[in-house]
Amino acid sequence: MDKEELLFNKEGLHFVKVKKNQYKLNFSMENNNILLSKIIDFNLIKLIYDLNGDIYEWVNIEKLNENQVIATLLMKNLFEDIGLTQRFTYIHIHRTIEDDKIIFTSKSIKGCRPEGVPKDSEIMAIEDMNITCNIITNHKVAISLNIIFVADFNIPSFVEKIVGVIVGKIFKRVKQFIENVRI
After folding, report:
1. Domain count across the chain
2. pTM here?
3. Angle between helices 157-179 and 43-51 (to 10 degrees)
4. pLDDT in tens, 132-152
């Protein structure tokens, strides 16, 4: 693939296929009422869950230290009617803070099943997921989410668009919530 393929572009969220099994979502958030860099932390995982009850069944966040967590997110079985199994994400997330960036680097935890996850569910085939939050001003942040699925995972093109819509919906809700906070 020589250039990125646009899969979803709506309401300021831009989701593209970078190459086979690699995708990127870009968007920005702005709110003049709050210092955005102060709220970009692991609590955003809980916010994602709280705002997307139609997508996630439950979430568990185990804080290892100020800059690392283990997160388990169980999705609702959105495609049970077409015979697909329920999916979950089990990841180790590391946060790095640089001058004008907050970076979340995530790696899937493989080889063990987290407690509470149904036995017939399957782990998402995510290899890496990284979120870079570029602090433009105290009140504006540009966010880039990169998702890399495992190399041997075959994603049909119609599923790519569905993934784009779901990822877009999840982050659109977070973006709208944060942009509408008034204090």
Report:
1. 1
2. 0.89
3. 110
4. 999 999 999 999 999 998 888
